[in-house]
């Protein structure tokens, strides 16, 4: 369903209301209508469900529970669905069916209030809760559950105009705390923005948070948070609201959950002030009385999980994927395999594990999915997984656990059943490992080198724990949650070096026979056709070939449904989207590295434009990037090709070899020669010393090798090493440190050496273990910096401290299991 369709849904909802809400902060009936219009444990499988304690700090684990909004949308009369009887029934059903597995949150979403008190604070609906909302809250608490409510930024027009006194601050009124000139506070324009330069604005928020605290509210979903919620240009900015509410809720020990589709550019801000944040649009399909969600809305979460996983944790908050609607096949809108895939993604991503089904109608399969203690333990362990690669629809995601085990999820996002191979090296294990199938709750044997998840069905998933055998090596990179950074650390920002391949064309000809060197184009611009398997398509895409309309390689991919997207991950400094322009096409949003860059219009009133560059980004820092394009309007969106701009690592883009006057060909590389992994023709490596030689920065291809090539153009790939996984953490402050706690008998640190680096002090179990020189005349990657063997069995802590030099870059760690 498109956004326009959802707005129509919202208008139908509003039309059915008898009374409009007065308040904004509780988002009563009118606000709910507008909302509908938009939209450290051990091995994972040894942790038991329900291991959370009631006195643990907020945000220690992803919360588990239920939220009403999916059923409000499904029922089609959302402002009326959340009655006292309905909420009590859901609470009782949770206690009976799910609570023993750890589910204990009941969130009452939009439309719970219908007015305001004399201080401008929201009052619960008397229609929905004739005996008072307090009676419902008390019932939920009586079931040993926590209760949540819903709010949005700002203050309603009516409360502003009424100029009501603020509770606890009688010197101020609600007319005094609004920004002038008036500005809207939310996506829908329901309320006015508060002016937090006025202390009474904070006191107004405090008064509401304190009121919620007095009711016993445990959780607040704060919706329409910007930047995010469909607005990224700061024309509406709720960051001050988030800070104010965070302070007010913290003193009441109320969990703070931000919503929706928050802007990742401000991730550090969100992690500072809330326990959780929604990272994508609503999961609901907005198809009332038909389904709660649909597969496309699950599939589009994978790229968001890949963008956000580094921000998940007990100190930074959790990435919220919205309701996990997998409890009843008759209403979920998903197949059995898709239901398990969704549950697997939520689990491995450490996403808040809350459902949106009618819990009085869960089916047996849904209960099995939601109460598997080994799967829940993965979720509650709080170790967000990340993908080995998103350049394929058959994906492997993994997360390292503190005991050295690795949680592995395999996902088949493709169109056919498939075997999916897990490379142990890709998930950081050298040696063998025991494998446990968490969904089946049984051991799956052992693996060395690779493990094959057989016959993973279309849109299906498997979930495993890989436990390294004694003496195996476990490798971590600088992103791993097992590392603790102290000080002013940053990630990448141009400090990283990425692995790359630079193509050079060898043009072979014979001048004695009238031949000449063929001309070639720049080798640092690589065309990626729409058929490339590394492009991930989300939605019902088709491919059209042989159109004869001037398409690149005479084919295009196309899609009709709004919200469909394509995504491509690449290494380079720029990218172009090349497509067709036509009257049947419309607008699309372009995201680079998870950030909305622009909205492109591919509409052309007359005629047809072939191979049109409709988006170009050429100023990226050299490194790993992702482009994602989302259809917003028009009948079709097309992809013809992507042009990737590579860093120039070789001084020429082609060489010429004349058979009539054979001479070696010499070119020069821009990185240290030790960083050149090799020269390749396709997947076949040339033989160093025979086919080519290296002296300093000069690489010389021998006459004999060039003579062996066919006439015409042959592409040779110069492959260069980069930092591990193409990323680093870094600091420029002396005394800053990074620590690793591990159980093993040996440890190794690998990382960059560079001209701007100096020395690092190493401590092992709080005792000095030496000073390491990480200076080099050229930037080098993946160098062994420190190694220690012969450690006693048990837990150890390694700490690195910047002692001298302009910067310390941290890359890889490994340890040998005991």
Please supply descriptive tags for the structure shown above.
818 residues; eight-stranded parallel β-sheet; six-stranded antiparallel β-sheet; 5 domains; disordered N terminus; TIM Barrel; alpha+beta
Describe the protein's architecture and organization.
With 818 residues, the protein is α+β, with helices and mostly antiparallel strands. It folds into 5 domains: 3-384, Alpha-Beta Barrel (TIM Barrel), CATH 3.20.20.70; 387-469, Golgi alpha-mannosidase II (Immunoglobulin-like); 477-497 and 725-816, Galactose-binding domain-like (Jelly Rolls, Sandwich); 500-524 and 648-721, no CATH class; 525-645, Galactose-binding domain-like (Jelly Rolls). Helices cover 18% and strands 35% of the residues. It contains 17 helices and 55 strands. The strands form 14 sheets. It has an 8-stranded parallel sheet. A 6-stranded antiparallel sheet has the order 15-16-17-23-20-21. Strands 19-24-55-49-52 form a 5-stranded antiparallel sheet, with no helix packed on it. Strand 15 and strand 16 form a beta hairpin. Helix 5 (84-97) runs parallel beside helix 6 (133-142). It is globular. The two termini are 54 Å apart. 49% of the residues are buried. Mean pLDDT is 91; it is low at 1-23 and 25-53.
